Amino acid sequence: MLPDGSNPEGVAPNPPLGWTGKTDLKDVIVHGPAFSHATTKLRTFLEYAGVPFRHEQHLKAKPQGIKPNSSYRKVPVIDVAGRQVNDSWIILQNLLPALGIEMDAAWEERIVMELDTTFKLHCTSTDWARLAVATVGAPSVMKWLIGPMLARMECKQARHNIATTGLGHREGDEIAFARDFKRSMQGKFHGGTEPGHVDLSFYGFLAGYLHAGSPIAANMVKQAGLEPWVSAMKKVVPLETLFPKTIK
């Protein structure tokens, strides 16, 4: 474990968290900016399950969203009953069973390694600028500067991940991904008559882009014929609950 007792990336917390149900999820705080795909995805699961939580964006904190004495430097991070848990994959592995949601590891891996990387590489300056303005309240007059800066930064990060991490980051095609999702749907939702893990994870990933009206998300949804699914997911977890006006 890290010096503050929290888990390193890819390592299960020790001692085990022991989350067996929603009653174990007390005093929940999600750390990480609304701009972050993974942070919004985690908040989507909590909103859907009706688990009360506080969202701390910590946009000015260094490192972002992390306790001052922690040596972990990524988001999201979750605090439950005063205990910090790191790494979105580890968090979901422990959180979903407590919420009564079965995790589909193969689809989660595609969302984390393929879709996230693809968006980092394929989003335009317009996509990034709209996302920043809509989710974290970046000044709209600065869109001409923010968009290109984020496009360069995110593309560089994706290339680095592909080349050096060895975790399986890869470039794909966002429309092909969405069509694969559509073909594997079991009904109104991917999970059938009710949203399952894959619905919530994919929707949570897209939520910021949908809220911002980013062209890449709009085109992806249209080309794959996912408009009915998006409308259904918005009723389950409204975008307004994930991105309240106070942060716009």
Question: Any chance you could write out the topology, listing elements then pairs?
Answer:
Blueprint: E1 28-31, H1 37-49, E2 53-56, E3 77-80, E4 83-86, H2 88-99, H3 105-122, H4 125-136, H5 143-165, H6 174-183, H7 197-212, H8 215-224, H9 227-236, H10 239-242
Parallel strand pairs: 1-2
Antiparallel strand pairs: 1-3, 3-4
Helix pairs in contact: 1-2, 1-7, 3-5, 3-7, 4-5, 4-7, 6-8
Please name the defining characteristics of this protein:
248 residues; alpha+beta; 4-stranded mixed beta sheet
Description:
This protein is of the alpha+beta class and 248 residues long. The protein has 2 domains: 22-99, 3-Layer(aba) Sandwich (Glutaredoxin), CATH 3.40.30.10; 105-247, Glutathione S-transferase Yfyf (Class Pi), Chain A, domain 2 (Up-down Bundle). The protein contains 10 helices and 4 strands. It has a 4-stranded mixed sheet, with helices on one face. Helix 3 runs parallel beside helix 7, helix 4 (125-136) crosses helix 5 (143-165) and helix 6 (174-183) packs parallel to helix 8. It is globular and about 45 Å long. It starts with 27 loop residues before the first strand and ends in a 6-residue tail after the last helix. The mean pLDDT is 92.
